[in-house]
C-alpha cells in the first residue's frame, strides 16, 4: 500500500484471467500513491465474493474471464447494494464492446494495448478524489 496513514487508500480489486497481465496491473496500479490492491480473481463468482469481502472501491475487469465474462460481473455489480467504480480494461475494444460494457454499468472502458497508461492515470485521479472527497467521486465517463 502506498498511501500515507492519514489517508484512506483507494481499494482496488483486479479481475483478469491471465496471470502475467494481472501481475503487471497489480504492479502498476499498486505503485500509484493512495492505491491498495486488495484482491485478485480470474472468474466472476470468485470476483464477486472477493469484492464483497474486501470492500473494494474500484474493480478493474477484463471482458474475457475464466468460466465467464466481465459482462456478467458488470451486471452483478450494477445490481449490488455496495457501490463500486468499475473499469473495463480489455483487448476486446471495438465500439460494440465499449457500448455494451458502458450500458452494463462500467464507468470507464480502456483498451489494454493502447490505453493502459490512460487507465493508470484514471485510477490515480480517482484515488486523489477519493482521498480528498471520499468514494462519491467517479469523474467523467471515458467513452
From TrEMBL:
GO MF assignments: DNA binding
Pfam families cross-referenced by the UniProt entry: Response_reg (PF00072)
Superkingdom in the source lineage: Bacteria
Keywords: DNA-binding, Phosphoprotein, Plasmid
UniProt domain Response regulatory: residue ranges: 11-127
Entry-annotated residues carrying 4-aspartylphosphate: 62
One GO term of the biological process aspect: phosphorelay signal transduction system
PANTHER family (alphabetical): TWO-COMPONENT RESPONSE REGULATOR
The name this protein goes by in its record: Two-component system response regulator
Species annotation: Paraburkholderia phytofirmans OLGA172
Amino acid at each position: 500500500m502506498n498511501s500515507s496513514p492519514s489517508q484512506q487508500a483507494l481499494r482496488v480489486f483486479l479481475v483478469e484471467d491471465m496471470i502475467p497481465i494481472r501481475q503487471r496491473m497489480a504492479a502498476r496500479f499498486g505503485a500509484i500513491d493512495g492505491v491498495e490492491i486488495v484482491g485478485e480473481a480470474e472468474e466472476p463468482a470468485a470476483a464477486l465474493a472477493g469484492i464483497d469481502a474486501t470492500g473494494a472501491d474500484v474493480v478493474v475487469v477484463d471482458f474475457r474471464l475464466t468460466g465467464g465474462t466481465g459482462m456478467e460481473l458488470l451486471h452483478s455489480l450494477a445490481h449490488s447494494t455496495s457501490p463500486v467504480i468499475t473499469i473495463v480494461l480489455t483487448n476486446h475494444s471495438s465500439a460494440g464492446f465499449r457500448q455494451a460494457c458502458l450500458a452494463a454499468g462500467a464507468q470507464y472502458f480502456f483498451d489494454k494495448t493502447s490505453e493502459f497508461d490512460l487507465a493508470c492515470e484514471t485510477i490515480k485521479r480517482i484515488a486523489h478524489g477519493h482521498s480528498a472527497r471520499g468514494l462519491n467521486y467517479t469523474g467523467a465517463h471515458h467513452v
